[in-house]
Structure formats: C-alpha cells, structure tokens
Design a protein that fits this description.
The chain is of the alpha+beta class and 185 residues long. The protein has helices spanning 63-78, 109-116, 121-140; strands at 21-22, 25-33, 37-44, 50-57, 87-92, 96-102, 143-144, 153-155, 161-163, 172-177, 181-184. The chain has a single domain (2-184), classed as Transferase(Phosphotransferase) domain 1 (Transferase(Phosphotransferase), domain 1, Orthogonal Bundle). A hairpin with a 5-residue loop joins strand 3 (37-44) and strand 4. It catalyses: L-threonyl-[protein] + ATP = O-phospho-L-threonyl-[protein] + ADP + H(+); L-seryl-[protein] + ATP = O-phospho-L-seryl-[protein] + ADP + H(+).
Length: 185
C-alpha cells in the first residue's frame, strides 16, 4: 500500500513547494516530512518568532485518520507543560490543515545522540527527568502518548526536552476505572 503513496509535492491539491506564506507566517525550509504531512520552519511576520508548521494534506487521509488527527489537535490544545511542544494555532482550508507549533531549534534528541554519541550522565539524567515530568503531566491529564522514542523528543534552544505529542494516531484519551488503573478509549 505504501507504494501507492505519491510524494506530497505532486498532489494536485497540495502545492507545498509553491507556498511562501500561511496566515501571518513566512515559510522557510522543510524540517520534516511524512506520508501525509510536511513540517516547515516559519517566521511570524510581526513578532519574528520562529515556529514549526505541520502542513497536513487532508485529501490523503481516510475518514478514520482524519478523526484521529482532529482528536490529537483537541488533546494538544489542552496540554500546557514546559516539556511538551506547544500548539499555538490551527488553520484549515478545504484540503489542508496547518498546525503552528513551538519550534525546537536543536532538533531530535536522536540526531543529537548520533552526532555526539553518549550523553554525560548528568545531561542524560536531566533529559530523562524532563521527559518523565512531561509524561507524568500527560498521564495526570488522561493522555497516553504510546510512541515515546528519540525521534519524538526534541531539544529547544537551551537543550531542554520537548515531547512531541502530535504523532498520527498515537495519543489516546484515557478514562479512569475505579482506582486501579486506566482504560483506553
């Protein structure tokens, strides 16, 4: 089935390579790609704030994945934690969803580890504590990430962990059952 997926820039409804602005943001370079989305670095034209804009081609999502995407957006709107990537704004057109998120300029911790090797123990302990704090916050708010890995842990300008939670189909809302645990919905 993956062989039937065409590159994003070839879609007749999604001329991503021709976009220069989205709302009040000037698009810059591509910083990530996936089957249904492209992530672009962008700058707010007034404040000059750098952001990441995830551009999702709705026409390439089936109904189930579109519902999951909107559920994940609703989850991200509620989450406010210093170690979780913040969703600033959502814009939508007929064929596209634009998610304006906090930008983590030092990229994925995975790339950091590949380029620099093993972290010193004090740095690793700090990163781990930040990740645990973010996951604990999610759990306390009834959200389970289900895809924690180095590629979904970003580093901000101060090398703090930012858990990226908007990963298609991954966060789930939980409902408490008695005091013994959680049940996935």
């Amino acid at each position: 089935m993956d062989s039937e997926i065409k590159p994003m820039h070839k879609s007749k409804h999604f001329p991503i390579d021709q976009l220069v602005c989205v709302g009040n943001y000037e698009l810059e370079k591509t910083i990530g790609t996936g089957n249904f989305a492209v992530v672009k670095l962008a700058t707010h034209v007034i404040t000059k704030t750098k952001v990441a804009i995830k551009i999702i081609d709705k026409s390439r999502l089936d109904e189930d994945n579109l519902k999951k995407t909107f559920r994940e957006i609703a989850i991200m709107k509620r989450l406010r934690h210093p170690h979780i990537v913040r969703l600033y704004q959502v814009m939508e057109s007929t064929y596209t969803i634009y998610l304006v998120t906090e930008y983590a300029p030092n990229g994925e911790i995975f790339d950091h580890l590949v380029s620099r090797g093993r972290m010193p123990e004090s740095e690793a302990a700090r990163a781990f504590a930040q990740m645990v704090a973010a996951v604990g916050y999610c759990h306390a708010n009834g959200v389970v990430h289900r895809d924690l890995k180095a590629e979904n842990l970003l580093l901000d300008r101060d090398m703090n962990i930012k858990v990226y939670t908007l990963v298609a189909g991954l966060p789930y809302i939980c409902s408490r059952i008695r005091r013994t645990g959680y049940k996935l919905r």
